[in-house]
Design goal:
mainly beta; 351 residues; 1 helix; elongated; 31 strands; 31-stranded mixed β-sheet; single chain
Length: 351
């Protein structure tokens, strides 16, 4: 009996060991050695990078040399044969350099990572990725950036950025030239940027801090937070989430529901200031030198001026409604909530 069991185990072992080796190979990463090429380019050459059909990260930076250094690395966890199913194609033309991954076989299971350094006088025109992170630092030129799944980080660039992520965080820092930013179920963050920003999100928040320019910010089910803005908030709109705007030059329109709004402004522009909330409170902080007409309305709540000073109310002011002028009067401030309090403060004071 023992001889039979031993013989059976020997047979099974001979079958199992090759299977296990096969299974193990699928889990290990095979990577080709990095491949580096250099390309001389003239001033203002437009560079595009396309990795739209494959996974992989893209990192782009700049230096003081007059050529492009391009490094790419292919990797896979599906066996070395997959590495041969993709390649990188470089197309050179007067004023252009196009870098693109190419599938050589359907259903290729291979990733390609790019590390690219551009001359400072080259123009980054477009970057496209599928599933992978994109990092851009120090480039020049109006740039389109498109990603399906993966975060996008842009830092210290000069030029208008048109960035769209199907799903992934977007972060700008130290950019000039303005931007259009679009994503879903992720966050948008802009820090120390100079230029007008239009940010659109869905199920994600938007944060703006230490920026110059006019902001148009719209999301759903995500908070909007603005701080230290030398410019106007043309629109801040969300649902079921708070809006906080601190130390902005002006706010033209802010709107949310089932949450609160805090706005602090130093002026009221020609288009006025309108803040509306469906079921939520509003706190408004105004600088001491603002002159404006004002109208406050709450259907269910109180209006509290907190010893505001410098406000003259009209005869039709009643509980839940205040109309009047601040200082000499001027452009209009209109504040309304369906359910919640309205608090009016001078900037620099606390509740």
């Amino acid at each position: 009996m023992l001889v039979r069991v031993a013989a059976l185990l020997t047979i099974l072992g001979g079958l199992i060991i090759p299977l296990c080796f096969g299974c193990g190979a699928l889990g290990l990463e095979d990577t080709e050695p990095p491949h580096t090429e250099n390309y001389s380019v003239s001033e203002s050459t437009q560079v595009t990078v396309t990795n739209g059909d494959l996974n992989g990260d893209i990192e782009i930076g700049t230096w003081g040399k007059d050529y492009v250094e391009l490094t790419w690395t292919k990797s896979t966890t599906w066996g070395k044969s997959e590495l041969d199913k993709a390649d990188v194609k470089i197309t050179e033309a007067p004023g252009r350099l196009d870098i693109e991954t190419k599938l050589l076989s359907k259903n290729a299971r291979v990733s390609v990572d790019f590390d690219i350094t551009l001359p400072k006088n080259a123009l980054l025109a477009k970057v496209t990725a599928s599933d992978g992170k994109i990092s851009i630092v120090g480039t020049t030129g109006n740039t389109i950036v498109v990603a399906k799944f993966g975060s996008i980080s842009v830092k210290n660039t000069a030029g208008y950025m048109d960035i769209a992520a199907e799903k992934g965080n977007i972060r700008l820092e130290g950019t000039t030239g303005g931007a259009k930013l679009t994503t879903t179920e992720s966050s948008i963050e802009v820090v120390n940027a100079d230029g007008d920003i239009k940010a659109t999100n869905s199920n994600g928040g938007i944060t703006i801090s230490d920026c110059k320019g006019d902001m148009t910010l719209e999301t759903s089910r995500g908070g909007i937070h603005v701080a230290d803005l030398q410019g106007r908030v043309l629109l801040a709109k969300t649902n079921n989430a708070p809006i906080t705007i601190r130390r902005a030059t002006a706010v033209e329109s802010a709107e949310t529901s089932n949450s609160d709004v805090v706005a602090e402004i130093s002026s009221v522009g020609a288009n006025g200031t309108t803040i509306t909330v469906n079921a939520g409170s509003i706190s408004l902080y105004l600088s001491s030198d603002i002159n404006a007409d004002i109208e406050l309305k709450t259907l269910s709540g109180d209006i509290i001026t907190h010893s505001f000073g410098g406000i003259t109310t009209s005869d039709d002011t009643t509980k839940g409604y205040l109309k009047g002028t601040i200082g000499a009067g001027g452009n209009k401030i209109y504040i309304e909530t369906s359910k919640g309090n309205i608090d009016l403060f001078r900037s620099g004071t606390t509740e």
